[in-house]
Amino acid sequence: MSANGTATTTTLAVTPASPVAAGTAVTLTATVAPSTAAGSVQFMDGKAALGSPVTVSGGTAALTTSTLAAGTHSLTAAFTPSDTSSASTSTAVSYTVNGSTGAQATTTALAVTPAGTAAPSTPVALTATVTPSAAAGSVQFNDGTTTLGTGAVSGGTATFSTSSLALGSHSFTATFVPTDTAAFTGSTSSSIPYVIAQSGTGATASETITSTVAAGALVISVANPSVTLPTPALNATASLFTSTGSINPVTLTDTRAGNLGWTVSGQVTDFSDGASHLINGQNLGWVPNVVDNGAGQVVTPGATVAPAAGVAGSDAGTLGLKSSRTLAQGTGLGTAHLGAALNLNAPTSTVAATYTATLTLTAI
User: Fold this and answer.
1) Closest to 99 in 3D by CA, of 193, 32, 20
2) Model confidence pTM above 0.70
3) Which of the ends of the chain has fewer CB neighbours closer than 10 A, N or C?
């Protein structure tokens, strides 16, 4: 390399936009100008290297990582030429990764038996139901500002019984106290009015009304499971065979009770000609998009995943769609249709044949 070679500039883009939660797949894309410059890019987090150097292809190099720790990062891309071009380093990009999303919210509901009223000395049972049922802790049963007693939560319920309630009006509540406040929040039920009255002073009747909410289901499907990409063509620098296309629309329907939210992810196998020749699955990338979604849904496409720059079939890396990547995330009930543009790079050493891979889409 010549110290007086062609000057280059390197710029860095990071997706998705900061801030993100810890564990989010973050893609760093370096653009080297002029695009004819040959070499590799080392991505850096401050003074620490992120992965190995990535070969520049068509003026770009990309790295995806899910290991950025919580905190503020200073990300850069350093281009090292393999021709007569000069080296260059991007301006630092400040990027924030948030830590844990915090304790999971709980709700507490209270039921009293017998309902409404009871005679003096009658056993009155208070039953608290805590959601989610995995929340560990205890429930404090109250009559106004007076604590009646406590009960341990087991399988999402806690109970307390008393036969010493005084004559007159009462107002019962149940307060959940979590064992681990970092895992679950506390919660208090709505108040239930109650009357202790002498026998013969009145009459009451009660009805128990029950309604069962169906569990519903999370369903993912594709109408056409076959995708054919155009024949790969040699790129402008004659360094790769490239092809672009798109997946067929993916239908995601959520009818589950509780508005649980969902994530759809995809992961591809290596492309095989059915014999001994492969195109590494790392060489396939995508740009997710949301075709449409239900009026009650909020759906966000996943981050762009850049394809590897034509790595060999034997390469054991995890670039591109060789690792599971997010296609979309959503909340709310209804049906959404998801899509993605596909980008395939194949080494120029690829043997002529028809290659097939399987893209597995998973909804959770």
Assistant:
1) 20
2) no
3) C
